[in-house]
Structures are given as C-alpha cells and as structure tokens.
What we know:
Helices cover 37% and strands 23% of the residues. The chain has 190 residues and is an alpha+beta fold.
Amino acid sequence: MPVPAVLYRISTAEIIKRAVFPGNPAEALPGMDPDYKWLITYIPFEAPDFDIRLFSMVTKETITSTPHPDYPIYSQFLVTYETVKKPDEVIAAQVDNAERAALSRVFPAADQLKTLTLGLGVLAKISEKLELDPDEKKVMADVIALADKVWINSDNAAAKKAEALAGGQPNLDADWAAPAAVAAAEPIVP
Length: 190
C-alpha cells in the first residue's frame, strides 16, 4: 500500500515535495543526503463533519520530530483539522437563506398571487361587514394557517441567529414549519 510522505530539507526548513514514500517505510533509505529527510504523513483523526454554511475548515500541517506510530524510524508530518466559525454577518445571511428556502416550501411562488389576491378579497368583504360564503371562509382559514407558518419560520430564524451570535451551532435544516399536506382533489359534480 502506498504511504504518503513529505521530503523535507533541513537547512532551509522547506518541503521539497509531497509524494509516496520511495521504498519500504519500515526500513531506512540508504544513501540519503543528511540535509534531507522523509517524514511520513500522519493524520490522527479524520476531517470533522461540519455545516459549510456556518464554518470553514482549516487544515494544519506540522513538521515534527515525533516518531510515526506505524513507522517509528521516521518522524511524522502531522496533518490535523480545525473548524472555524464564519463571521456573524455571513451566518446571519445563511440563516436568512435557510428561512427563504423554508418559506418557498410552505408558500410556493406559483401559489402566492392567487392566494394573496383571494385573501385580500376576503378581507375586503370582512371590512365591509359582508357575509362570507363557504369557499371564502376556507380561503380565510388557509391564509391564517399560512400566516401561522410564516410567523413560526420568522421566529425560528430569529432564534437561530441568536443562537449563532451566542456561540452556538444552530441546525439550519431543522425546525422549520412544514408545508401543508396536499388534500385529495374533490371530484367536480356537474
């Protein structure tokens, strides 16, 4: 199995190349220039899972004199990972994007004009103290249910921003109001 390694120049403290170790890493390489040494790449833990909307990953590479755990005649070229929180304004924008995505599932753009127009018509009738027919009452109930979901998502976005600003790691994919279940269409009776 190929073993990743780094060729290091001691006098200039520079990495000359990254390559597969040129031989058996359990044995010393004969005829090496004393100004050069091979370091065997060692990654003690895998890169962490993280939300790229909230964090960036930084890979840290360190030249060490610590023996490699599998090939102790060579030192480690240590590779570690760290997540770094993105700036607050970036996180706030990501929360806004997640809220917009949730709202588009609750209230798709294709339905907005019709629903809002019918809702305004119902409000106009209510303001004139006119009686609503059953279809208009259903429109009003649908608009109220929709408004409740929009409020839930708005409150959820504010809570996620507050959590992030307080140093937390909000789950941008959870807790959004779900779209209404689509009812089966009633047959049209002539």
